[in-house]
């Protein structure tokens, strides 16, 4: 049950796509809800993998920044 609680807490934070964007068409909200769900699940799995490997875990904000940079294929030389 701990995974569900973590997921709910992360989706209710201010970094949620579904809460930040409002649309009149239901399918757009549904799409961003599923996208938000996938991002939060990826963050939870990433941190579990880091913990298993003994690596340093990222915060939610740093994970989102890293994800955005990799998806956009931009180079950021600053340390996270």
UniProtKB/TrEMBL annotation:
Keyword field contains Transmembrane: yes
Residues annotated as transmembrane:
26-46
Q: Does the keyword Membrane apply?
A: yes
What's in the keyword line of the UniProt record? Membrane, Transmembrane, Transmembrane helix
Name of the protein in question? PiggyBac transposable element-derived protein domain-containing protein
User: What are the leading ranks of the lineage?
Assistant: Eukaryota, Sar, Stramenopiles, Oomycota, Peronosporomycetes
């Amino acid at each position: 049950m701990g995974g569900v609680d973590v997921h709910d807490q992360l989706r209710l934070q201010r970094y949620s796509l579904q809460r930040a964007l409002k649309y009149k068409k239901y399918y757009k909200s549904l799409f961003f809800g599923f996208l938000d769900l996938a991002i939060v699940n990826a963050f939870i799995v990433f941190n579990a993998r880091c913990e298993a490997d003994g690596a340093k875990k990222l915060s939610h904000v740093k994970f989102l920044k890293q994800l955005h940079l990799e998806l956009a294929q931009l180079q950021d030389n600053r340390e996270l």
